[in-house]
Amino acid sequence: MQRKVNWCTPHAKGNDTNAENNVSRKLESNYFSLHSPMTQALIPLSLYIHVPFCMAKCTYCDFYSIVGREHSIPAYLKSLLHEIELKQQELDLSKYYIDTIFFGGGTPNLLAPHQLEELMRALLRICNLGEEMEIGMEINPGEASLENLKAYKGLGINRISIGMQSFQSKLLTFMSRIHTVDKCFSTFDDVRTAGFNNVSADLIFAVPGQTREEWVADLERLVTMQPEHISTYSLTVEEGTALHRWVDAGHVKMLEETVDTGMYDWGRDFLEKSGYPNYEVSNHAKPGFECRHNLNYWTGVEYLGFGPAAHSYFGNNRTWNLRNLDTYMEGIKVTGSGATDSEIITPSMARNEMILTRLRLTRGLNLEEFSKIHNENLLHTKNNMLKKWADKIVISDSHLKIARTGWALTDEISSDLMSLPS
What we know:
globular, about 425 residues, alpha/beta, disordered N terminus
């Protein structure tokens, strides 16, 4: 997968660390000082930075995050910068360009603007820069001031994802979300005031105690706010979470699967009718505002992850970092690496992952691309499985897609197609 970008070589920066300065303007004057009209066909690369710090641990969250460790942010940042520098030295990135950057967590907005600026400077030195990079950041309602949001915008961040989760106070309490419903609205207004025109909002459904009427009300309220992107996630029970312990002990009962599926189906239909086409199982966007960073994951674009628990996929190799802040920082200090393990992506793994990820997308699996890469005609090798799911799939324009009647069965269909041909 290649795209045309301007060839430009990052150079050293000045010493100004004022977070209010417009780093986008700095990039134009510093990074593009040797800008050439010549273009080169380069390979896109995505960057992910994991910020593990949180003010509170949500009941359902199985992402690596820690509470009450904000005092460790300076040491974490130092380790992160060192990891970025070492990765840049280790890999040959001359044929790559940065297409997307995403700050996830945890809670990235717990980093001060000047810390984010230092981090941005290091990331933008990794390799060539794309002409229209998507630089996204997660924030929690009530935790990012208008002043900081303006600073983020000045740093070149151009996409904000707000973890609203619900507009029902009782559900926020159940999920251990520490923001109020009003903070969802005021934070959204602040994001707009700061100048962001690419905003995503997350909502969760199938929460114990949630009614269909409450879910309908949440979606209707969110649509009136007109974010560019909406993600809706079914609450799932992940091992190691508080929710898992509660369910396992019988203190909490999850909603019936039919109720969960009904909420999903209604939500998907409603959002599509409201101008938010569904482009992935859990994601809707106004046309042109699909999340490029996640699309890169789902379409096999290589990516580098930095920070504890972050994953990387580069050069047919997948690595993942230590899932502990202290051991991660110690690893960076002692060995120069925060990685805990790695694996080579075998042809069969690549085949299965291509099926799994592409079928999550409404555009589906490109059968010609699949045949070219894996030397397999899926229509022939999986003919029996395709017949089994004939009423749940659509084959058109050389693409295999999940039909509306098969949305809730995407995992089962993918599993059958992933089984190796006999």
